[in-house]
Amino acid sequence: MRKLIVFMHASLDGLAAGPNGEMDWIVVNDEIFGFVEKLISPVRAALYGRVTYQMMEGYWPTAASQPNASRHDIEHARWYEQVEKIVLSRTLESARQPSTRIVRDDVARQVRDLKQQPGTDIVIFGSPGASHSLMAEGLIDEYWLFVNPVLVGRGMPVFAGLRDKAALKLLESKVFSSGVAFLRYGSVNA
């Protein structure tokens, strides 16, 4: 069975974004990019909420062809082009990329079905709203959190909508020179 994994940056006070969606506090650098590239390289399915998907679509399809494209831009753009993209949205009419599937209705059932299909694990990138909905349904198997050394104060929480307590076990951790801590947790029941 495929695992469903939440990949999210978090502030030390547990927020995924500021009150107006700000993410300017997130630390990204070559050390973190290199780690993330290795982490996601075997993944061939990415799940997004509509807002995050549209943000990704506005950048990654042309990122590698820009004159100032970094090695990370080139590598991640190639990865983005190749993976199956699953978008949870009731309002998105169509997608530009041929390898994109839009899930509009009965999301929990459709995601459960996706997890049963053969293939690699499915990673949810950011997308706090979509992640919250899937957390509420008990569909998340792992959390890949990049905890940034900042207190944001107010905004969108990383965790919301849980119906019950969810016991987790630490599977991996790494601290980067920037002070960002990567924490990989798995469900005790998985």
Question: What's the quick description here?
Answer:
This protein has 190 residues and is an alpha/beta fold. The chain contains 6 helices and 10 strands.
Description:
The chain has helices at residues 30-40, 50-57, 60-63, 71-82, 107-116, 128-136, and strands spanning 4-11, 15-17, 45-49, 84-88, 100-103, 122-125, 142-148, 156-157, 168-175, 181-187. The model has no long low-confidence stretch (mean pLDDT 92). The longest helix has 12 residues, at 71-82. It has an eight-stranded mixed sheet, sandwiched between helices. The chain has a two-stranded antiparallel sheet with strand order 2-8. Helix content is 28%, strand content 28%. With 190 residues, it is α/β, with parallel strands linked by helices. It has a single domain (4-187), classed as Dihydrofolate Reductase, subunit A. It is globular.
Strand content: 25-35%
Which shape, going by the Cα principal axes? globular
SSE order: EEHEHHHEEHEHEEEE
Give the CATH class: Alpha Beta
> How many domains would you count in the coordinates?
1
Topology:
Elements: E1 4-11, E2 15-17, H1 30-40, E3 45-49, H2 50-57, H3 60-63, H4 71-82, E4 84-88, E5 100-103, H5 107-116, E6 122-125, H6 128-136, E7 142-148, E8 156-157, E9 168-175, E10 181-187
Parallel strand pairs: 1-6, 1-7, 3-4, 3-6, 4-5
Antiparallel strand pairs: 2-8, 7-10, 9-10
Q: What are the salient characteristics of this protein?
A:
190 residues; Dihydrofolate Reductase, subunit A; two-stranded antiparallel sheet; 10 strands; globular
